Amino acid sequence: MTDSARTKPEVDAPTGPAPTELVIEDIFLGEGDEAQASSTVDVHYLGVGYDSGEEFDSSWSRGQSINFPLRNLIQGWQHGIPGMKVGGRRKLTVPPELAYGPAGSGHQLSGQTLVFVIDLLGVK
């Protein structure tokens, strides 16, 4: 794995209106196994609010990656991670409908467009 994959990424403050559809941007491509919709993924990630640019969660800050079945994660991840290869870094800009729902849905991040930078460390 490259050194850049081990370091917490920085996310520039987004500009312009938040997208209404999932935006997938590869920062660098991996060369390992490819994630499938049915995969369990091991990832490091950083999450920031699109409007605020403020970090709301980061596995790097906790010093430990997360390992989850992709089907158990938000829809933005379910749609945005398959096709990614181990060793890659991808940025997902996720509208509320594919994250935690519209404002008032009960989750503290509902109604928000979220930006995630994800390093794919492994797939099963």
From TrEMBL:
Domain PPIase FKBP-type: residue ranges: 38-124
Transmembrane segments: none
Domain of life: Bacteria
Record's keyword terms, sorted: Isomerase, Rotamase
Alphabetized Gene3D superfamilies for the sequence: 3.10.50.40
Key word Endoplasmic reticulum present: no
Keyword Isomerase: yes
Alphabetized InterPro entries for the sequence: PPIase_dom_sf (IPR046357), PPIase_FKBP_dom (IPR001179)
Pfam families cross-referenced by the UniProt entry: FKBP_C
Entry's EC annotation: 5.2.1.8
GO molecular function: isomerase activity
Catalytic activity: [protein]-peptidylproline (omega=180) = [protein]-peptidylproline (omega=0)
PANTHER family reported for this sequence: 39 KDA FK506-BINDING NUCLEAR PROTEIN, FKBP-TYPE PEPTIDYL-PROLYL CIS-TRANS ISOMERASE FKPA
Name of the protein described by the UniProt record: Peptidyl-prolyl cis-trans isomerase
Protein species of origin: Plantibacter cousiniae
Organism classification: Bacteria, Bacillati, Actinomycetota, Actinomycetes, Micrococcales
